[in-house]
Design brief:
The complex is a heterodimer of chains A (110) and B (114). Helix content of chain A is 0%, strand content 62%. Chain A has 110 residues and is mainly beta.
């Protein structure tokens, strides 16, 4: 079983829709990252969380440490949000190595 | 500030050869970490360097190695290349070690082993 699980694997939305991506982990962590990867490979760090909630523009990330769960929300989605979104955690028992989820491929249609 | 720079962008090598990839971090960042991304395994952590010392290592064979220079630039080396080493290799920099700070990624080096 992977230590970090993301759902869904693929998601298609119409422009303007609200999108939620989920990340569950099974180990103790010191931080959780949400990353965005566009075609071509470049990765952008969206959020780093250790508790609570963060908001940047139309993106909101939340984490529940007790439930070992995080969500990334995209409000008023736009075709430029089409990308792969990756959850990654720093596992405290593993020397804070970064362990990645499998990614969620998001397609927003105009 | 310039971003994280990885060179080369693309590389084609033959099985058995070795390869060296380079990563120049954002000015002032002292931590550089390396990752391998393949369609089958996704993103995997290779190693992290801070102040010229390897601080953390992923589960990769000894053919994968790296180093960091006094100006924080880092190189990774893969010896005796195998077909399965074909991947996108990404590096990321951050101001502090251990990564409870946002990571800044380069655009990656795409390695093809034939």
């Amino acid at each position: 079983k992977n230590e970090v699980e993301q759902s869904p694997q693929n998601l298609t939305a119409q422009e303007g829709e609200f999108i939620t991506i989920n990340c569950s982990y099974s180990v103790g962590i010191s931080a959780l990252h949400w990353l965005q990867q566009h075609p071509g490979g470049g990765i952008v760090s969206l959020f780093m969380l250790s508790s609570g909630k963060k908001k940047h523009g139309r993106l909101i990330a939340t984490i529940n440490i007790q439930e070992k769960h995080s969500s990334l929300h995209i409000t008023a989605s736009h075709p430029r949000d089409s990308a792969v979104y990756i959850c990654a955690v720093k596992i405290t028992a593993a020397g804070n190595k970064l362990t990645f989820g499998g990614g969620t491929r998001v397609l927003v249609k105009p | 500030k310039a971003g994280v720079t990885q060179t080369p962008r693309y590389l084609i090598k033959t099985r058995g050869q070795q390869v060296t990839l380079s990563c120049s971090p954002i000015s002032g960042h002292r931590s550089v970490s390396w990752y391998q991304q393949t369609p089958g395994q996704g993103l995997q952590f290779l190693f992290e360097y801070f102040s010229e010392t390897q601080r953390n290592k992923g589960n990769f064979p000894g053919r994968f190695s790296g180093r960091q220079f006094s100006n924080s630039r880092s190189e990774m080396n893969v010896s005796t290349l195998e077909l399965g080493d074909s991947a996108l290799y990404l590096c990321a920099s951050s101001p502090i070690q251990g990564g409870n700070s946002p990571l800044h990624f380069g655009n990656g080096t795409r390695l093809t082993v034939t």
